[in-house]
Specification:
This protein is of the alpha/beta class and about 350 residues long. The chain is about 45% helix and about 10% strand. A hairpin with a 6-residue loop joins strand 11 and strand 12. Helix 2 runs parallel beside helix 12. The radius of gyration is 22 Å and the shape is globular.
Length: about 350
Amino acid sequence: MKVQKLLFPFVFAVLFCSCESDYYSMDDFSKVEKIDAHYHIYTDKNNSLEQARKDNFKFFDINVYLGDCGEIVEVHHNLKQLATENPDEVAFSTAFCLDGWDDSAWVDNTIAWIDQCVADGANSVKVWKNIGMEFRNKDSVLIMIDDPQFDPIFKHMTENNIPLIGHLGEPKNCWLPLDEMTTKNDSSYFARHPEYHMYQHPEFPSYEEQIAARDRMLEKNPNLTFIGCHFASIEWSVDELAKFFDRFPNAAVDMAARMGQTFYQSKEDREKVRNFFIKYQDRFIYGTDNSDHGTNKESLQKSLHEKWLRDWEYLTTDNEMQSTLINGSFQGLKLPKEVVNKIYLGNYRKWYKSL
């Protein structure tokens, strides 16, 4: 009897430690190798990498066509240099220009540019929301991502195993009045950028039309590796995102700039969100969408560290949390180590075949 009493605390302690060893804690934050797989660097200063080294992060830097073809080229050369100097810490994508869209040589020129960028070290190609929301052809018709002129581009990328990164459409909040949006970061962003607040522009395609065009493009290119930025603009519903994953097995998503919507859904049904992350654990890639323009070094590094630490707490603990992104409190997901490792690095390596 005495032996049993002596053994019980020991057995309980062993079982408890074994269970807890399946999860990370806040103390593990800087010990675990991670990547911010949606980042933008527009400077040759080392501000971002300084903080990344402290917090055990790598960077995947995404080039974007914002309407200036010269900027794409300049950023490409800067990122190529940065990755050459820091090959174990930095990888990068490219983007293509839409100037000359109506020229018969546009397709061949674009494929040549993509091939040159890949030869320079780029591991993927990014398309942005100006496709579907801004860019028009010579007849003033809005160009959508399923336009047939993109077909040979995506066919070439498929044949050469070049992933496509897509920020297509916007969060569903974009089509709501500011005071009806579910997250503060969305209402703040669209208040600052009314040109992209589609509630004010009913003449543009609806949210549903944007998503449908993206899905038609994927149906035409079933073997194309696709990474949907910002939860593939299906950030508002884990149920709908599950349908997207089931429908398109060659698609993953990054989590950049949409954590507020995840917090919001966790507040409503935490177990549903947690089970969703565990079930589709191979499809998520961590990122922030932060930008470094070489200014305000201390502010940038402080902001990076705080955001990285907040997301780590949400994904690895079951703490009761609050965020400036939403109203009210929510509980962390406390995902198993295996899932956390995939989100923070393993899935990036799987989908981009890099670093």
